[in-house]
Amino acid sequence: MAGEYLTTKQVQELLKVDRTTVYRMMKDGRLTGVRIGQQWRFSSDGVMAMLSEKKESVTVAVIADVLPMHCIQVIQDVFADIAQVGSLTADSNGEPLTEVSNCAGFCSMMLGTESGRKACIGSWKRLAEGKEKHPEFFKCHAGLRYARGRIEVGGELTAILVSGQFYGTPPDPDEQDVRVEALSREHNLDKSKLSEAIKKINVVDEHRRQQIADWMEKVAHTFEQIACERADLMDRLRNIAALTKLETNQD
After folding, report:
1. Which of 3, 164, 170, 249 has its Cα between 20 and 30 A from that of 42?
2. Distance CA 50, CA 86 (A)
3. Which of 121, 113, 104 is nearest to 184 (CA)?
4. What is the tens place of the pLDDT at every residue in 192-203?
């Protein structure tokens, strides 16, 4: 395709935009077009470069424009209360987009330090990098179980719903003491308080974990639908604005 010229329809299909937007892109210099007879043709190199840029920026654009965090937070809060888990929504790099819902005291202590927060974000980032479609529970840096639901828009991973803050099986007391000792030193936390907090972490059996995973998947899908519907609405509004501007310029 490199070095070739594309029709307006081909550009529309590749960039997922309408004809008016294609001409607007040409007018503002984002696309290079040449007139061949009565038809416009566009450089395939320029279109592919724009397509690449569009893919790279999709996460930032979607998060900023189409994921209404005030709405996401409310749904997430309700889900966390019903499922009795800690939950948050993060971007594909593990950076939190919402406040943690139903946060356990142990996790609040970890998130209250800069190093602890970085360690948690690192765990969430690893969850985002996983290729499995259905939520699966893994151990975080502190030994607790977490899973994530994928939130995709336009086939691209945009954000994740992270849920967990529990044990899969009862922890060995000696191993737990060793873990608390290491975490308290690493993150400069009071060992006795951390030890008391970790004793309150729930143990969730396999059947319940599977139920939580199914719920997570449904909630993440709901977030996808909200994002896609808002993205479609915003595209329509932009097209209306572009048409209005075009009509004004013609007058």
Report:
1. 249
2. 39
3. 113
4. 999 999 999 999
